[in-house]
Amino acid sequence: MKRGFWILAAIIVLLLPWVGNNYFIRLATIMMLYCVLALSWNFIGGLTGYPSFATAAFFGLGAYAGAISQGQGVPMYLAWVIGAALAAIFATGLGLAILRLRGHYFAIASLVVADVLREIVNSTTNLTGGGMGLNLPVLKLGVDAQAKLFYYCMFGIALLTIFTAAYVMRRPLGFGLGCIKQNEDAANIIGINATIFKTIAFSLSAVFVGGAGAFYASWVNYIEPGDVFDILFAIKPIVMVLLGGAGTVSGPIIGAIVFLILEELVWRNFLTFHAGVLGLIVVFLIFYLPDGILDLNYRRWFGWRKN
Amino acid sequence: MNDWIRKDFFRFASFVFILAGILAFSGPVQGAEKVLKIGAPLPLTGPLSPEGQKQVQGYDLWAETANKAGGVKVGSERYKVEIVYNDYQSNTPRAVQLAEKLITEDKVNFLFSPFGSGATKAASGVSEKYGMPTIAATASSEEVYNQGYKFLFGTFTPNPTLTEPLSDIVKAKVPQVKKVAILARNDLFPLAIAQCADVSAKKRGFNVVFFEKYAIGTMDHASALTQIRAAQPEWIFATGYINDLILIRKQMGDLKITAPVVTMIAGPAYKEFTDAAGPLAENVSSASWWNPAVRYKGIDVFGSTENYNKIFQEKYKFIPDYAQASASSVGAIFQIAIEKAGSLDRKKVRDTLAELNVTTFWGDVKFGPTGQIISLKPPVFQIQKGTQVVIYPTEIAQAQFQIGVK
Amino acid sequence: MLAAVLSRRRSLSEHISMLYLQVLLNGLVLGGLYACIAAGFSLVWGVLNVINILHGTFIVIGSYAAYFAYVYFDIHPLVSIPIAAVILFFIGYALQSGVINKVVAAPVLTTLTLTFGLDLFLNNLLIVAFKADYRKVTLENPLGVLSLSGITVPIDRLAAMALALLLTGLLFWVLDASRVGRAIVAVRMDREAAALMGVKVKKIYALTFAIGAVMAGAAGSLMSLIYPISPLNSGIFLGKAFIICVLGGLGSVPGVMVGGLALGVVESFGALAFGPEHAVTLSFIILILFLLFRPTGIMGKRGFQ
């Protein structure tokens, strides 16, 4: 039953671009981007319990790595791989440094990294264009074709992320991360090398985000430090996972979808107060849905009983 | 108890969601009147919102004025102007997203560019893809127009047209100037214009002894200014947005920095600068693409600069500065082109814009091959006794350049 | 000829040492203000274990209070601190007892996201109410500048710095000497024990948060004299507060003073050495280094001693 549901969903997603106009396709592409971000954060935040705010740093890093590569003539798809790889390598190094910290200190450190990277990008004007931003070559393709192409590429990245997440959760890695989340010292005692597991999770939380960042740069053709290192890229995935429920594969996905719908509704209807409404939604979430929508969903619709 | 609340609530919430989703994605009902829709993606919230608001004032004034005169004439019919505003929250990628939405969903006839060089450049790709004539009211950097696009036009001349006349005046009237210090905000426009100032100064044999950038959001310039004080330049050139420049001018006063010439772009053009800086604003010079003191008689719906100022003051109760005037001019220029082309066909209007050679309240309007305007003579002005006075061009000069900023 | 060369060389080194002295002074004056910005933040973090993202917005509200007091009632910003303090006390107390109390024991993710959401809401409210334009308090009679053989100090900054340090000192005294203060420290050290001794923990939490807000409002009042005011500045203040808390050691008031002064001086000299565009990056890098190698800060102590 469950597998059939997912296959149906996949078919719907594949056919979506033929249903709506370009703006609709754009929204759908963003939705899948959000899925990637949410699932990625889930590795370190949901599974391992480390409140990482570094998603923005990885995204921006991937975006600039991809953009600079393309500027040097590297083909677009390869540039995305470069973005992903660079983000993963950076995360590994960063992880070894800051994963030693716990709780608040780790959160702040991960938060601040995006700012530091942004300022570094701002200062190295010759390489990155600094405050003036960076342009990417526009594809020689019709508007509609481009919209669909990027949509399917994003879908591909999202699929990769989903499969990786599902795979990790069924393997010892996923189990080990769960142990670390419960009690890291105990996990160490029973033989789980917390440092290695955490670092892998952290890198996993970066690799697809970096790729998505590079994709994003190619998609919008122009990036600025303030945009791609925006702290909201760190906050939104967290909210999405809170919304949908951490620790599963479908949780972050549903959270991402619901969040996008909310965001679009709020944006269209509250011209000057959408940020405020978003804030209220976040507060509301924390109080009333601490386990996410999915928790309620499954139990009622699939006839499972609460234990 | 908790469970019950959750279950019911969730049911209700999902119902609301679906309903709202359907409502949100369905388009508006079309009226029977003939309407000319122009899309205006603007930063109505976020750090750029003050600038966005100025654009709204300019666009609204034009729409009102045009509608009061009967609307825009398209062939034998009259169209009512409707501006479709959308907020991109000072976030450039959203501006691009909005541009696409306005074109594909709201089906606007024409597009106003988002604010600033960065967002304009980013969104211009969308305009080009869809063949949508777009005029930018606030983009001056040449890099914005260098992509070979055919559908983007702009009402600001390139940055050197601001720094060159300024440097000429300084060279001619202030012979003691030998050393120049430049402090620039690390942002697209302020940095670009600072670089132009650097080039203009060096061209005239001045020695640029200091050129540093400050990060966006810098709250304290004391260190940079202390270094400038140590270098003792005769010409200090600072760029940034109005809050930066107010702070810099105040801290210059704190550090007792004086110089024969102090130029700031783009703060002094706004009244808020003079209000906030008080006596410190005296003799600060600046340049911009328009000043309420210029005098042009145009074929646009406003008729003349004086009339524009008058109508603006009636509606908003203060004198316009170049930001609002540029926004209004973009609307007025679209109107001229549409009426000349006699149709709303995008290609036709685009071609008419490219051939345009008219005078408006904004100045002479002729677009160059890149789409950027080439016919303007940006005024150089100075704050004397609390008001802006135009120094250049000499035809409309109101006063002489004064030396010495304390 | 030789005399001319010698005299020129002497004034060059004089020049340089004057430059350094001025930069140092700039940094110290800035640092005093910074200490005041961070004091409330450190208190809340140390006692409630809550990272209060709203702190920056509280400071901005304090600035607006001082601005409007000046524009409408002609009250000098240095004097209107109590007004800002009262307003912020109520906002802080209400927020804490109404909302934040519910998540005090929650993991950092929850509290951080919650205060972030609240901040989004409050900040947007400010923007809608007051617009994002920058306001500036321009004094009718400016306070002027003190000048000693080439080194200048603006009097308004000096006054603000003095008041900032005074307020921070007052906070320290309150925590140390008053009953309420001792109760707050007790709760910080051991919640259950304090409750057993008859301390109403929830009320203490609310009070602490309110005091934190008051310090923020006071800092904002002082800042209105010096910086342009806008809701958009809240993030910048918050960033500084973070760094100062880590630099100085969490939850310690002397630590906040040391951290603030240290940050001011580092930023000042950093701008001189690396250029103004790097000053901010530099302070963040220092934050990360401290987090990695000395999370207890310069003073090396945690909690209130």
Describe this structure in words.
The complex is a heterotrimer of chains A (307), B (406) and C (305). With 307 residues, chain A is mainly α. Chain A has a domain at 22-230. Helix content of chain A is 78%, strand content 1%. The radius of gyration of chain A is 19 Å and the shape is globular. By secondary structure, chain B is α/β, with parallel strands linked by helices. Chain B has two domains: 35-157 and 293-366, Rossmann fold (3-Layer(aba) Sandwich), CATH 3.40.50; 160-288 and 379-396, Response regulator (Rossmann fold), CATH 3.40.50. In chain B, β2 (72-74) and β3 (77-87) form a beta hairpin. The model of chain B is unreliable at 1-8 and 26-30 (pLDDT under 50). Chain C has helices at residues 2-48, 55-73, 81-98, 108-130, 155-177, 179-189, 191-196, 201-224, 234-248, 253-274, 279-293, and strands spanning 145-148, 151-154. The chains are: A mainly alpha (307), B alpha/beta (406), C mainly alpha (305). Chains in contact: A-B, A-C, B-C.
Question: How is this structure best summarized?
Answer:
With 307 residues, chain A is mainly alpha-helical. Chain A contains 15 helices and two strands. Chain A has helices spanning 2-15, 22-47, 55-71, 76-98, 103-123, 125-128, 143-170, 172-182, 184-189, 194-220, 225-228, 232-244, 250-269, 274-288, 293-301, and strands spanning 134-135, 222-223.
Helical content of chain B, roughly? 40-55%
Strand runs of chain B, count:
15
**Main CATH class of the largest domain in chain B:** Alpha Beta
Overall mean pLDDT score of chain B?
A: 87
Globally, the shape of chain B reads: globular
Query: Over the alpha carbons, how many angstroms does the gyration radius of chain B reach?
Result: 23 Å
CATH fold-level topology of the largest domain in chain B = Rossmann fold
What is the share of helical residues of chain C?
A: over 70%
Main beta-sheet strand count, sense and barrel state of chain C: 2 strands, antiparallel
Question: Over the alpha carbons, how many angstroms does the gyration radius of chain C reach?
Answer: 21 Å
CATH architecture of the largest domain in chain B: 3-Layer(aba) Sandwich
| SS-derived structural category of chain C | mainly alpha
User: Segments of chain B where pLDDT lies below 50 for 5+ residues?
Assistant: 1-8, 26-30
**What is the chains' assembly state?**
heterotrimer
